[in-house]
Amino acid sequence: SPVLDRLRPYLEQAMPVYIVGGAVRDALLGRASKDLDFVKPRGAVKLSFAIGDKLNRPAYALDKERDTGRVVLPEEGVTLDFARFRGPDLAADLRARDFTINALALPVTARTRSAIIDPTGGLNDLEARQVRIITEEALTNDAVRALRAVRLAASLNFRLTSDTRNAIIAARPLLAGVTAERQRDELLKILMTSQPGQAMQQLDELGLLIIVLPEVAGLEGIAQPPPHHEDVMSHTWNALTWLVRLEAALRGDFAGNKALAQAHAALQAYTDRLQTYLQRAIDGALNGRVILRLATLFHDVGKQETSVVDDNGQIRFFGHDKSGAELAGKRLRQLCLSNDAITQVKRIVAGHMRPLSLANSQGANLSRRAVFRYFRALGNNGLDVALLALADHLATYDGPGEQHQWDTLVDLVAELCRFYFDKHEQAVKPRPLLNGRDLIDILGMKPGPEVGRILRLIEEGQAVGEINTREEALRFAQGQII
Fold first, then answer.
1. What is the pLDDT of residue 19?
2. Which residue in 195, 378, 400, 406 could disulfide with 382, CB within 3.0 to 4.6 Å?
């Protein structure tokens, strides 16, 4: 990390100091690390405050008893953690860590690979591209490391060693005792890897999914009728995979896939604004991208309790969207997500069938009324639902399927983006011509739900171009009064 070059002159004065863990691992893999962890024999909190003073940034004592401090550099998005050795010396500290590839250390004065301290064989495991537990006690002492192992393997495209898999399976009953907040944090990080579908599948194979997300684990083996080609759980993993590929396609990386190239071309005028939208801040230190991935994870979770076979032997899932939204909300509350995050995930799950309904009823030639009602129901999350619809379709058919259907859906999503970004005030959220006070004072209406009903009708009239002035709005309202 370039931050280390800035810190080195100050750290050299406090030697011995070592940079440890993920930052060393990432440097060896040619990756930049945003979290820099330092250890020294003693005086870690004192060093964190000294570094904070040098950089003119606040320092925090995270744990005075364990001698642990932190400095945050928000401009660079970097966190600096300082800690005392966990044990009598550096080797003991490294052996007390979780995985061998995280148990590497480097003196802050060193600049070459030969200075790396590796008591557990982490360099060999990096070369072999594998995640290996240091000791079984690492999991029994902290069972959340079972989730972390899967996350690390997914983020690095590594594999879990057989002894690590066996240790995870042995320790999995302990995961239920891990706080909901720590489970949540690891799950969100897993979702934000480049392979969330594969990672979730591995959680299921290791028996961890049923502990942390029992509703999703319950989707295994639930059959679906054509055009689906796999059960609900496999479809969910593929929807996540296609969503990640779609996100890359919006950035111009469609890896030669014609369907994704078509989506990129149709949405090219809006890709920058979609990226900004997906990076919007959500309460709880989240962003829009993780909200969309959460919604994709839960989008079909309602199919377990709504699956029925009709008189013709056809499998149906009536109301699975609404049922799924409630199940998602309940689980996310138990995982202690913010109300803002829960509301948005529920809205996306509840509305994820709307683009298909629009495509079947109107094709890509959307009326202004249909667009207004779509965004009135979904708010800003109408964009999330549109992107989820593309990933859902690709997962359903394992590709674009029948070309006309894919063409229609892509064009429909492009139209929704056009109205949202280019005609927002005209067709999505018109500026109010009247408010409730106007209806009460000018037309003599009584306060109550009827006022809200008429205001909604006026707003829709504005969106479709039938009401354009305050006077027209008043005449319309007058005609609506019973």
1. 94
2. 378
Asked whether 432 and 288 are in contact (CB, 8 A), the reply is no
Strand-pair category, 35-40 with 18-20:
antiparallel
Which of 190-194, 201-205, 358-362 is predicted with the least confidence, judged by mean pLDDT?
358-362
pTM above 0.85, yes or no: yes
Stretch 30-53: mean pLDDT: 91
In this predicted structure, the answer to whether residue 328 has a pLDDT above a threshold of 90 is yes
Q: What is the predicted pLDDT for the residue at 482?
A: 67
The CA distance from 437 to 455, in Å, is 11
Tokens 């991935």, residue located: 293
- Over residues 24-41, the mean pLDDT reads 91
Name the pLDDT band for 409 (thresholds 50, 70, 90): very high
Give the residues across from 18 on adjacent strands.
Answer: 39, 107
What confidence score (pLDDT) does residue 154 get? 95
Q: Write the CA distances from 79 to 36, 55, 110, 358, integer angstroms.
A: 6, 13, 21, 46
List Cα–Cα distances, 2 to 27, 32, 33, 55, 76, in angstroms: 11, 9, 10, 14, 10
Q: What is the mean pLDDT of the chain?
A: 94
pLDDT digit string, tens, across residues 279-323: 999 999 999 999 999 999 999 999 999 999 988 889 999 999 999
pLDDT score of 382: 97
Using alpha carbons, list the distances in angstroms from residue 107 to 35, 161, 480: 17, 29, 77
Instruction: Evaluate whether 176 touches 211 at the Cβ level (below 8 Å).
Output: yes
CB 94 within 8 A of CB 119: yes
